Each structure stands twice: as structure tokens, then as C-alpha cells.
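Weekly modeling sync, notes
Attendees: S.R. (lead), two postdocs, one rotation student

Agenda item 3: backlog of single-chain predictions. S.R. asked that every request posted to the team notebook include the full sequence so nobody has to chase files. The rotation student volunteered to paste the first one in as an example of the format we agreed on. Action items at the bottom.

Example entry:
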Amino acid sequence: MHGALIPSETVSGSRLLSTGAAARIAGCHPTTLSRAIVRGELSAVRLGEHGNYRISTEALAGWLRRTQSEQP
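Predicted structure, as returned to the notebook:
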């Protein structure tokens, strides 16, 4: 198993994660992150017009802080 290895890319020094990798970190389903991206709650870049999303580690951390603070 490659659990310690998370596929990522870097752009301008910022680490970018696939929705699958980000979901493993966040403890949720990749669809949850995709829906948050579409709603504008989570920033991401898209690879091509119909490509996959990439989420920066900073954006994921911010989204996690916001969603955890909304929990009752």
C-alpha cells in the first residue's frame, strides 16, 4: 500500500492534491470535495476544460477549518 505517498503536483511552490488524495486527508468522499468546489466553498484548479480538479493543501486546510467550525 502507498498510504504514505500522496500523488501531488506543484505550481508556484504550492502543493496540489487530487480530489482523491485530498479526500483521504480530510476523511471524506471525493464527491464531497467536488460538490464543495462547485458550490464555491473550496478553491481548486481544473486540468483542462473537462479535467480533474487539483486542490492546494492551503485551500484544503482552510476548508477543513471552516467546516469544522460549523459543526454543532
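Discussion: group reviewed the output briefly. The two ends are 35 Å apart (CA to CA).
Action items: rotation student to repeat for the remaining queue; S.R. to check formatting next week.
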